[in-house]
Amino acid sequence: MKNVLVIEDDPSISELIEIHLKDLNSNIIKCYDGRDGLKLATENNYDLIVLDIMLPNVDGLQICKEVRKKENYTPILMLTAKSEEIDKVIGFEVGADDYLTKPFGIREFIARVKAIFRRTEALKKEIDNKSDITIGDLVIEISKRRVLLKGERLELTPKEFDLLLLLASHPGKTYTREQLLNLLWGYQYSGYEHTVNSHINRLRSKIEQDLSNPNYILTSWGVGYRFNDVENFQNN
């Protein structure tokens, strides 16, 4: 059974979420206040946190930020009444795994939750079967979910780490935006490819010395992205 924390100040939405998540064999803990939600999110373990952005006392973005500060990588699905792209960007920057704008269809919500559960299980298996990756000055410590560049630890969001790990695990292989969306977010919806682009851009800003001439994550023009293969990397 999955343990899911739902931090949502609208009782009708919270109850609707609870009804449908119970159908997924989930145990639901509900909270309607940001301050209480922050305490629950940082002091207990969950398989998923469903988090509204607009909350009384402490907003969802701050809760997400505090959870990640504690190196807690529980998947976070954010809900908001706002639809502006800037809100989504901020949500991803503080460590959200996925994002839904209200009003949303319950089928899409359940599809996102199922995708998160599938991806979480797949990542656990990948971590168990992989050793650390070192390419150039970049070291990916998989079991610790930690990345070092020239010996200095980088602050990556969970999704940025997953993206880097996927690309670095298959150097030279080009992934389309649609493939990355499906592999990392677990769903395929047209119009969401910009999510991949924004994550690539933020990841590059953290690992590349020269953004105009990236050395780790390369663009396959007209197709997608690939990680520099070791042979070419050593020749740079």
Question: What can be said about this structure in brief?
Answer:
With 236 residues, this protein is α/β, with parallel strands linked by helices. The chain has helices at 11-22, 34-43, 60-69, 85-93, 106-128, 158-169, 177-185, 193-207, 230-235, and strands at residues 2-7, 26-31, 48-52, 76-80, 98-101, 133-135, 138-141, 146-149, 152-153, 175-176, 217-220, 224-227.
Notes on the protein architecture:
This protein is of the alpha/beta class and 236 residues long. Helix content is 45%, strand content 21%. It has 9 helices and 12 strands. A 5-stranded parallel β-sheet has the order 2-1-3-4-5, with helices on both faces. Strand 8 and strand 9 form a beta hairpin. Helix 2 runs parallel beside helix 3 and helix 7 crosses helix 8. The chain is elongated, with a radius of gyration of 18 Å. The model has no long low-confidence stretch (mean pLDDT 87).
